[in-house]
């Protein structure tokens, strides 16, 4: 199949899970002998066209429309302040990639595409325009919703773009059953929605790949002694990730296990607030902040160096970070209230248990699970072994690609040849 993927983030510029997802999916589909073209954002420092791992990547150079954009947008975008520049960049990105395909690649280079793979609202305008102009089938991937990310509020414009793209799409793909329920509750067409869990590369994310020296360097960097435990949070420092609740749980942990250090790794608007909260709770001796987006290899080393990982999200459609930690044989504590794909990833009881589900709104509940793991090394090791086994069984990118390509083929009314025909979709 010839597949056009639209994603606002793609290596070497990745801001979150969508970039990781589209990169890994594109690579896997190329391995399956499909032709993949990715259309993504250019911050002005990147090549406008290149071949990466067999994937054609197009990054039209943005045009600065900030001088005129405020005059033609709604009051809501006006009120976004600095965010208005982001809106203008996204708007122009969608226009440019649509024009590239419609006015250049198809008529001048005789490129043909079987399906448009559109990821989140950030690429929805391109999907809508190209579906109308070319008649190509569109599959809309919804990784999260604006209402969910904002815990019930958010941008009306973004929510409307999500809904318009969903209505126009031939198929909708989302990342968890919890997310599917959320979409249906908002009135999205249930008959179009397929659930395909995300994945992780178990070779790249393998404890055997990380030298002991790399783990020691991470722990030494944070001043963590050999007899101390390291608890890792990695992610965006924003309210929906529940980091403030985690900090409020720490006094309940260090009262029992004082030789525990918490590493908070990430960036976000809550940085200052979290430092002030740690000071108010008098836990700064046990909390190390690293306000940074680290390269993937360093991220892997952090997982390998920690004793357990905690992701107390209030809203999490999936949660690739949990998979990454699990692949490194780490027990995990995850938020499991409300819309939580983490609840589907992590087995919380029985012989295959790999972590604990907690109420992320309750710091004492978070502390309860952390203390259970910190207090029993044998149990922690079993959880970690089970975690990697679950990743290998359910969450590899080849499984993701098998399921996705079947959805694309159905949307495009294409029968796949036996050589690339995927496994049957899970019910």
Characterization of the model:
The chain is an alpha/beta fold and 427 residues long. Helices cover 44% and strands 15% of the residues. The protein has two domains: 2-199 and 396-420, Glycogen Phosphorylase B (Rossmann fold, 3-Layer(aba) Sandwich), CATH 3.40.50; 207-394, Glycogen Phosphorylase B (Rossmann fold, 3-Layer(aba) Sandwich). It has an eight-stranded mixed sheet, with helices on both faces. The protein has a six-stranded parallel sheet with strand order 11-10-9-12-13-14, with helices on both faces.
Map the helices and strands.
Elements: E1 2-6, H1 17-31, E2 35-39, E3 49-52, E4 55-58, H2 69-72, H3 75-78, H4 83-109, E5 115-119, H5 124-134, E6 138-142, H6 146-149, H7 156-168, E7 171-174, H8 177-185, E8 193-195, H9 212-221, E9 229-234, H10 243-254, E10 260-265, H11 271-281, E11 287-290, H12 296-305, E12 308-311, H13 320-327, E13 332-335, H14 342-345, E14 355-358, H15 363-374, H16 377-394, H17 397-411
Parallel strand pairs: 1-2, 1-5, 2-4, 5-6, 6-7, 7-8, 9-10, 9-12, 10-11, 12-13, 13-14
Antiparallel strand pairs: 3-4
Helix pairs in contact: 1-17, 4-5, 5-7, 9-12, 10-11, 10-15, 13-16
């Amino acid at each position: 199949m010839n597949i056009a993927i639209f994603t606002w983030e793609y290596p070497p510029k990745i801001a979150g899970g969508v970039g990781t997802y589209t990169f890994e999916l594109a690579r896997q589909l190329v391995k399956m002998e499909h032709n993949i073209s990715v259309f993504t954002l250019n911050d002005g420092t990147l090549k406008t066209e290149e071949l990466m791992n067999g994937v054609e990547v197009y990054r039209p150079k943005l045009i600065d429309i900030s001088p005129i954009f405020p005059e033609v947008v709604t009051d809501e975008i006006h009120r976004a302040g600095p965010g208005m520049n982001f809106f203008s960049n996204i708007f122009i990105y969608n226009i440019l990639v649509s024009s590239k395909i419609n006015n250049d690649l198809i008529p001048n280079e005789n490129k043909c595409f079987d399906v448009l793979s559109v990821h989140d609202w950030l690429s929805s305008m391109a999907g809508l325009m190209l579906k109308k102009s070319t008649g190509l089938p569109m599959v809309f991937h919804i990784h999260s919703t604006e209402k969910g990310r904002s815990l019930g509020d958010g941008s009306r414009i973004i929510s409307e773009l999500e809904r318009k793209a969903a209505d126009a799409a031939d198929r909708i793909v989302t990342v968890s059953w919890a997310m599917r329920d959320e979409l249906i509750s908002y009135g999205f067409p249930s008959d179009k929605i397929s659930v395909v869990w995300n994945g992780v590369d178990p070779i790249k994310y393998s404890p055997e790949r990380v030298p002991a020296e790399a783990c020691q360097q991470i722990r030494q960097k944070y001043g963590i002694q050999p007899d101390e435990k390291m608890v890792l949070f990695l992610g965006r420092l924003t309210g929906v990730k529940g980091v403030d609740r985690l900090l409020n749980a720490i006094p309940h942990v260090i009262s029992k296990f004082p030789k525990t250090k918490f590493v908070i790794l990430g960036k976000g608007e809550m940085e200052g607030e979290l430092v002030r909260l740690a000071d108010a709770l008098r836990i700064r001796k046990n909390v190390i902040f690293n306000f940074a987006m680290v390269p993937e290899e360093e991220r892997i080393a952090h997982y390998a160096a920690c004793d357990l990982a905690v992701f107390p999200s209030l809203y999490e459609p999936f949660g690739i970070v949990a998979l990454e930690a699990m692949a490194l044989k780490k027990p995990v504590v995850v938020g499991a209230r409300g819309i939580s794909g983490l609840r589907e990833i992590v087995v919380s009881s029985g012989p295959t248990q790999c972590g604990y589900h907690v109420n992320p709104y309750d710091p004492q509940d978070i502390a309860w699970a952390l203390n259970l793991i910190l207090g029993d090394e044998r149990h922690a090791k079993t959880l970690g072994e089970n975690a990697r086994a679950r990743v290998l069984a359910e969450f590899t990118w080849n499984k993701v690609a098998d399921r996705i390509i079947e959805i694309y083929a159905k949307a495009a009314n294409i029968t796949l040849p036996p050589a690339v025909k995927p496994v049957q979709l899970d019910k």
